[in-house]
Amino acid sequence: MHLPPDVVCVGETMAVLSPPTATPLDRQTHLALTVGGAESNVACTLAALGHRAAWVGRVGADPLGRRVLADLAARGVDISSAETDTDRPTGVYFKDPGEEGTGTYYYRRDSAATAMSTALTALPLLENARILHLTGITAALSDTCAELVEAVVLHRKVPGPLISFDVNHRPALWRTDAAPALLTLARAADLVFVGRDEAETLWNTGTADEIRALIPGPTLVVKDASHGATVYEGEGVTGDETRTSTPYVPQEPTAFVPAPAARVVERVGAGDAFAAGYLAAHLESRAPADALRLGHLAAAATLATRADVPPPLTRTTLDDHLALDDAAWSALTL
Predict the structure, then answer these.
(1) Residue 236: its pLDDT value, please?
(2) What is the pLDDT of residue 239?
(3) What is the rounded CA–CA span in Å between residue 295 and residue 271?
(4) Is the Cβ–Cβ distance between 15 and 51 less than 8 Å?
(5) Who's near 266: CB < 8 A, 6+ residues apart?
(6) What is the share, in percent, of the chain residues with pLDDT greater than 70?
(7) SS3 readout for the chain
(8) Which one of 272, 308, 320, 325 is the catalytic residue?
(9) What is the pLDDT of residue 238?
(10) Which residue from 18, 54, 125, 227 has the least number of CB within 10 angstroms?
């Protein structure tokens, strides 16, 4: 019997052309062809952690699209509901290493993924999942992509699954002001991931508590880079319901977990790995602090590589780290 996925991730996955070293792109002579996209990165990491994960999106009927599908399938991700477009190409992005970190150059305008629409909400795969995971990236790709995200997050056209939403602000993709659109989506989701720095850019918030005051209803996970992550437990499913009918009462964080010291080779994909680790712990009914820990561990594994997803994760080692007391965790170096 084929079991439904634990998590379905919806969004664009691209071919990635990545230098093998830290030398900037304009001085490279060779590039490696890999695969990456925020939502499929989450799916791949969830599969590596032992959970049933599916990716739903669209690729072109071209060699790059075939590579995307083959790579995701090889990582254990269910691609049975992925679509192939005979008229539009697979998106591509290049990585450009530099002293300030790795830059990214996207070639995804009018890609196959930009034609995603609310028709995807009719897929049985989505309704049968425990969690649907989407990001603000998809909302920025096209009008029909924005309608798809709104249909899932705001209007709950797929009844049943918990709705996970990563703000994932990509300024270069937005043709309009992203701040109100992303805030509306975040407030309507059940579980929200946001970086403290991106929230400051979008909404002029400085602290996790200020972000919580702005997004009072969902379970909210605020990532603060190497400092740590904070979670505030939420009120449950709402969708179109408003959470502003009563005055906001300041809420103490449910948990804060510092990020362990980790080797940083490249930061691309670390936030996706964190989200996957947190979602995996949620599926396993772990405590909120352990969910933050597992998120940190998955992110650290990704930081240590140039790939968009971490190398194979050993559950025995992860469980040993999760069992550490607070003092030992704070002293942990990965």
Answers:
(1) 59
(2) 53
(3) 9
(4) no
(5) 95, 97, 101, 102, 303, 305, 306
(6) 96
(7) CCCCCCEEEECCCEEEEECCCCCCHHHCCCCEEEEECHHHHHHHHHHHCCCCEEEECEEECCHHHHHHHHHHHHCCCECCCCEEECCCCCCEEEEEEECCEEEEEEECCCCHHHHCCHHHHHCHHHHCCCEEEEEHHHHHHCHHHHHHHHHHHCCCCCCCCEEEEECCCCHHHCCCCHHHHHHHHHHHCCEEEEEHHHHHHHHCCCCHHHHHHHCCCCEEEEEECCCEEEEECCCCCCCCCCCCCCCCCCCCCCEEEECCECCCCCCCCHHHHHHHHHHHHHHCCCCHHHHHHHHHHHHHHHHCCCCCCCCCCCHHHHHHHHCCCHHHHHCCEC
(8) 272
(9) 52
(10) 227
31 by Cβ neighbours in 10 Å (0-12 / 13-18 / 19+) ranks as middle
Using CA atoms, how far apart are residues 176 and 179, in angstroms rounded to an integer? 9
pLDDT at 248 over 80: no
Amino acid 242: pLDDT: 47
Checking DSSP bridges between strand 228-232 and strand 219-224, what pairing results, if any? antiparallel
Q: Are 292 and 255 in contact (CB under 8 A)?
A: yes
**What letter represents residue 218's amino acid?**
P
* 63 — pLDDT class (breaks 50, 70, 90): very high
Per-residue pLDDT band at 246 (split at 50, 70, 90): low
272 annotated active-site: yes
CA distance 237 to 159: 10
Output 131 or 105, whichever has higher pLDDT.
131
